[in-house]
Amino acid sequence: MGSPRPAWFPHGFGGGAPTLARDQAELLGEQSGESDLVLCPMPAIALVAGRRSFLGEAELEPLARGLLKEVRGRGLLAAWRRRHEGAALGAAPGTLQPQPAGSLFWERVTANTLLHVLPRVADAIHAREIALLLEPLPDALRPALSEAGYTEVRRGAAAGQLCPRAP
């Protein structure tokens, strides 16, 4: 009969899911509950597993959070005027270094992930709000995972960090 996973998952049209993505979705299904928050490299994995992703799209969420902070802190016109300045949106005044226009996208993804997203994820780990985090994970989160008692789980090619359950 075939897999219950959609044929398009996670990419391609009718080509079926690669082994890693399929194993990740199955690991989420086995190790987390339907109402649990999970952290995945691609939100589509959580969607297929029927779970709620803690973060949205990995490239756009950091930029959206930084832009929102920039606009709220400085106003729309000032944020627009600074569109070619530095990578970290919403950072304290004086911390942004001018950069050539057109080279900022990946610098901004990285800077805003460090400034706005990773601290949020670390706080959620400490509070044990995320049931399962799929690898690969940034090294910066390893101490928080260890302190909170997360343990490694595997299924086929997939690996993740599982939140300890309350007794």
What does the model show?
The chain is of the alpha/beta class and 167 residues long. It folds into 2 domains: 1-54 and 129-167, no CATH class; 60-115, no CATH class. It contains 6 helices and 5 strands; from the N terminus they run αβαβαααβαββ. Strands 2-1-3-5-4 form a 5-stranded mixed β-sheet, with helices on both faces. β4 (151-155) and β5 form a beta hairpin. The longest helix is centred in the C-terminal third of the chain and has 22 residues, at 105-126. It is elongated. The termini are far apart.
Supply the key terms.
single chain; alpha/beta; 2 domains; 42% helix
Tell the overall outline: elongated
| Total individual domains | 2
Strand order of the largest sheet: 2-1-3-5-4
Q: Give Rg in angstroms.
A: 18 Å
Strand portion: 5-15%
What share of the residues lie within helices? 40-55%
Q: Give me the count of strands.
A: 5
The count of helical stretches stands at: 6
Spatial separation of the terminal alpha carbons? 39 Å
Largest sheet: 5 strands, mixed
Structural class given helices, strands, pairing? Answer: alpha/beta
Poorly predicted regions are: 5-16
Q: How do the SSEs run, as a string of H and E?
A: HEHEHHHEHEE
Task: Provide the residue-averaged pLDDT.
Answer: 81
